[in-house]
């Protein structure tokens, strides 16, 4: 599941934790995204069958489904073949490689708080930072940058981590991150 090692920084023991990407979770997400792309294609090709007199709306929903879940398909396919560790928590901070908006290393000294949130039963961990622009500017593409800006407006931070692609449950991940943060903060 995750591989704990011990590191020392300034005489503080930090348990290094490596959490792998979950290929099973990614496969399920891949299948779901493919189904929604297929549904979007069906909506675009058959709007009158789905909702007579509302063809334009049905086509717009279909196009939105194709675009959003098509982007998800690309990300998930890329992650399926990613051999890097999904998340590493060590004496330096949190090194995130778990999503399409991952920013790499989040240094402990940049973290000002840890909290959890939930949208439509999808749980995630918010990493509050003293320097949000530093992490927004690390975004690897324009879409990721826009998502991080939207996160900042909604939650006050651009950084969020979900266990959805990792071999760990949300509560366990939250506990590990909070313990590391408290050790470095103290």
Please write out the topology.
Elements lengths: L1 E8 L2 E8 L3 H23 L1 H4 L4 H26 L6 E3 L3 E4 L7 E4 L3 E9 L2 E8 L2 H5 L5 H14 L3 E3 L8 H16 L1
Antiparallel strand pairs: 1-2, 2-3, 3-4, 4-5, 6-7, 7-8
Give an overview of the whole structure.
The structure is a single chain. With 186 residues, this protein is an alpha+beta fold. Helix content is 47%, strand content 25%. It is built from 6 helices and 8 strands, in the order E-E-H-H-H-E-E-E-E-E-H-H-E-H. The protein has helices spanning 23-45, 47-50, 55-80, 132-136, 142-155, 170-185, and strands at 2-9, 12-19, 87-89, 93-96, 104-107, 111-119, 122-129, 159-161. The protein is elongated. Residues 5-11 have low confidence and may be disordered.
Based on the model shown, name its key terms.
three-stranded antiparallel beta sheet; 186 residues; single chain
Specify the structural class. Answer: alpha+beta
Helicity level: 40-55%
Shape field: elongated
The first-to-last residue Cα distance is 28 Å
Poorly predicted runs: 5-11
What is the residue-averaged pLDDT? Answer: 89
Count of helix runs? 6
Task: Please outline the major beta sheet.
Answer: 5 strands, antiparallel
Order of strands across the main sheet: 1-2-3-4-5
Radius of gyration: 19 Å
Number of strands: 8
Percent strand equals 25-35%
Helix and strand pattern = EEHHHEEEEEHHEH
């Amino acid at each position: 599941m995750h591989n704990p090692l011990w590191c020392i920084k300034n005489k503080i023991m930090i348990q290094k934790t490596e959490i792998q990407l979950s290929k099973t979770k990614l496969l399920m997400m891949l299948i779901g995204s493919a189904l929604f792309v297929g549904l979007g294609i069906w909506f675009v090709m058959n709007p009158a069958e789905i909702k007579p007199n509302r063809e334009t709306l049905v086509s717009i929903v279909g196009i939105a489904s194709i675009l959003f879940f098509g982007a998800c398909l690309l990300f998930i396919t890329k992650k399926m073949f990613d051999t890097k560790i999904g998340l590493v928590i060590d004496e330096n901070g949190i090194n995130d490689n778990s999503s399409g908006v991952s920013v790499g290393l989040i240094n402990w000294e940049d973290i000002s708080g840890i909290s959890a949130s939930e949208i439509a039963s999808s749980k995630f961990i918010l990493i509050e930072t003293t320097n949000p622009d530093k992490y927004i500017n690390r975004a690897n593409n324009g879409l990721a940058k826009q998502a991080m800006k939207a996160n900042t407006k909604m939650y006050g931070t651009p950084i969020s981590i979900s266990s959805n692609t990792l071999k760990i449950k949300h509560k366990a991940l939250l506990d590990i991150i909070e313990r590391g943060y408290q050790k470095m903060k103290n």
